[in-house]
Amino acid sequence: MYPEDDMIMISALQHYLFCKRQCALIHIECLWSENYLTASGRILHQRVDQRKTEKRTGIRQVTGLRLFSEKLHLTGVADMVEFHQRTEVQDSNGATVAIRLNGASGFWAPVPVEYKRGTPKDHHADEIQLCAQALCLEEMLGIYIPEGALFYGEPHRRTQIVFDEELRQLTMQTAMEVASLIRSGQTPPAVYSKSCRACSLLDFCCPASVSSGKSVRKWIQNQIDEVLR
Question: Distance between CA atoms of 41 and 35, rounded to whole angstroms?
Fold first, then answer.
């Protein structure tokens, strides 16, 4: 198994799909800053940040569940995993989709649920992050997970996500690309776009000022050196 320090955070996949440079700033250069968008997202997650279990008829909800996949070199924490009660361990296709839970009768099928601020996006970053959680759970539990859900803050409702083969392949490809980026240790050059204005790392990234391929840390140090001369 990979050392924990070498594992890639599941959240890095979403960062990478939003902006490769943002992903490198966070996961290579270890930079972070918060703006009103990240703050509102953090507040939305407060309910599910701590590990706990809630029980309802036919459903068990677990928050703050640690996830990992040795195959995909991923780790992270699920906002929520619901376990839905079933009478059969297999689905109609013969795939194992449920497990037994301590202190509960019958079989239980895991359904990952990710909380997001705002509304559903045009891109697939949220779906890929959720699918990565499902792939981790599948490896951990030795079962097949057909679907999950994204809960968006503004419509305040869930969007069902089916983990079809296309989404699974896209998720695995993204995980490999993120791993390659992080192993390279190279931060991609800045490319300014309108989405930069919503990025909490705008002041670190300096897309209009940092030249191609330069480390942000080096750019900041150069600015400090100029002031101290």
Answer: 10
